[in-house]
Amino acid sequence: MASIKKRGSSYLIKVSCGYNCKGKQMVQTMTWKPEPGMSVRQIEKEVNRQAVLFEEACKKGYQSSAVKFEVMGEEWFKNYARINLRKTTEERMRRLCPRVYSAIGHLRMDKITPRHVQAFINSLSEKGANMLNGNPLSPKTIRHYHSFISEVFTYGERMGVVSANPCEKVILPKIQYTEKQIYTSDDIQRILVLLEKEQLQFRVFFTLMIYSGFRRGEMLGLEWKDVDFENNIISIRRTSNYLKQIGTYTDTTKTQRSQRTLKFPEQIMELLKLYKEEQDMKILQYGDKWVETDRLFVKWNGEPMYNETPYSWLKRFCERNNIPFYGIHSFRHTFASILVNQGVDIVTVSGALGHSLVSTTSNIYCHMLDEARAKITEAVSAALDFSNKKIEPTGA
């Protein structure tokens, strides 16, 4: 039963929460102050109501301890993130900590309100928030900060430290999807021709990427057991990533839907067979120095290729051949563009790209989809030749 004690113009409410392992009574307290103008009867009624609410909250475990956000954040990393998140995601969240802890890390979890979080989110949109160029942070980066804070509160709610997540009421800046820089069909044709003169390993890497839209980590995670030469299909089952603390490591795919299988033209599979023969010869040549990983794309001794190697090679390739360099991911956008312009439905495009949600594909490639839909209308109009026909009114 909660106890109520008047202290000046306010009331102290105490609730016993049992005893700890040393036999010491655990007590939670709160202070309630009446609004000006309340009558004695109103005050009595409201203070008793506050006492009941506070006691119920304590019984459920809320406010069971004065846990500060930084303490709960570190607990979340240890007990949840390290176990459930991909290493790259955990590392990205970890990089957000200094700014978040500086702003709200010293505050008790149960004292942080939506206004606290909103003020922090708004500060990220101000000039100078980006410490590299002095600009505001991008809406996407701001959402990463919001997501981290929200994850900690969700964990705190499950652990009985807070009763609600203040992030749910925070207003976030809208993400403006910009048109992606992609290679044209002529660019791709030229790149494919030029690749024929290059080292077989990189010829295979970028030809396969052009025909598949696979992510870089997915490409580097490919193993020979993922290649079905009999049916001309390749499956994505894992990724190869890099973190400074642990080096190159194998991880799961970005999402469950990222695990997918695509069928390839015969000439691509023949190129892969040629590459497999070359790698088999290297295995014999290097003998004990060769590290067996079953990976397609490796260093000289068979170890998984560094994640930055394809990026650096492509940049030099583009400079040598006077081709605009849009980065490795541009091939993925080009792949999507080709599918959209060929009239492939958005659900199939999303599946081929390995997006977890069709809406993700629609948002990223909305401009391409609008252009494709416009072409459909033009094609129908041309086929029916409406422009040259006069529509006669129906007779009475």
Mean pLDDT: 87
Q: Which CATH-level-2 architecture of the largest domain? A: Orthogonal Bundle
Enumerate how many helices there are, as a single number: 14
Task: Specify the helix fraction band.
Answer: 40-55%
The helix-strand sequence is: EEEHHHHHHHHEEEEEHHHHHH
User: For the report, how would you describe the main beta sheet?
Assistant: 3 strands, antiparallel
Overall spatial form: elongated
What is the number of beta strands?
A: 8
Cα Rg: 30 Å
Total count of domains: 3
User: How is the CATH topology of the largest domain named?
Assistant: hpI Integrase, Chain A
* CATH superfamily membership of the largest domain: Intergrase catalytic core
| End-to-end C-alpha gap | 85 Å
Give the structure's gist in a few sentences:
With 396 residues, the chain is mostly helical.
Describe this protein with a few key phrases.
14 helices, three-stranded antiparallel β-sheet, DNA polymerase, domain 1, hpI Integrase, Chain A, 3 domains, 10% strand, 396 residues, 8 strands, mainly alpha, elongated, 49% helix
